[in-house]
# Entry
Amino acid sequence: MKTKITYILSNIDKALTFEWIVHKLDEEKFELSFLLLNNKGTNIELFLKEKKIYVKQIYLKSKKDYPKAFLIILKELKKIKPNIIHTHLRDANILGLLTAKFLGIKKRIYTRHHSTFHHDNFPKAVKLDKIINSLATDIIAISENVKNVLIEKERVNKDKIHLIHHGFDLDAFENVEKIEVEALNNKYISNEKYPIIGVIARYINWKGHKYQIKAFKQILKKYPSAFFIFANTNGPNKNEIQELLKNNLSDKSYVEIEFENNLFALYKLFDIYVHTPINKEIEAFGQTYVEALASGISSVFTLSGIANEFVTDKENALVVDYCNSEQIYNAIIELLENQNLQNKLVQNGKKGIKQFNLDLFINKLENLYE
# Structure
């Protein structure tokens, strides 16, 4: 008999991870279903319907919708009768774990996607994190950083925690059709530009956009034809960051991309990639570290989240200090003027990310589910 697993997700439009899980999880052992908490239709819903995976879209816009959503989840779980529920993100964690606990579902898993954000910015929310921790029978920590926060700051029993790094289809990032890259080039870059410098990070201050933009302003003085691509441009500090862009960069020197479905081709547009969170712990994982190196892009990083575990300065990337525009500028210039260094970083970068291959991730998930 198959083990029934119900994923409960909130505020997710598209996520490659769940597409890969659907493709790779052993369908002879596991039967999947999904409950999606959103205020609109999503790409993941369309994908699941296409794959004939059971999916239920549940309307959720604010906490006012919690009671109704709880009852719908209750009804759905009674119908599905899952052996396991696995939740992702706050609303899904609260409603999914609470409902499953009420129904007596014995295996209740959640994946922890944030690190010290609540500890640093919203101390009251830490109480909610602790309630979620108590409702779960198992917690997936996506990095050593998250594991340490759970154990040291939130006093979670270490036996409850499972360290499972995100997994990636690494070949998909490397082997991208030229025609796909050319299509995005025509879409986002109107004229001949060099260098193309990319940033894929939500507009939230701890991602370090402030320091990147100051560095990019200096880059334009040395490379007037430089072009900057900012992607995934939603977030709580959007207005503030857009104001910084207007005040520091000419409107013809950058483009903002709210959402691009072809992530693989997007990375291939970049000559240099920059990701600079403002401290060691704030990034829970940072999938973009792995994605950029898998795409073969020489990169400038600060060490946060998963980067603490595998990124080494001048070996697979250039590492700069936190909140340091001058070092970001100098690192970009060093890469642009040293092709041998670029080649070395790209080659070592691809070697260093093999630990994040998709099969290893799937195997660890299956072991947990079994």
User: Anything to note?
Assistant: Residues 58 and 239 are 30 Å apart (CA to CA). The chain has a mean pLDDT of 97. Residues 3-168+357-369 form a domain with the Rossmann fold fold (CATH 3.40.50.2000). The chain is about 45% helix and 20% strand.
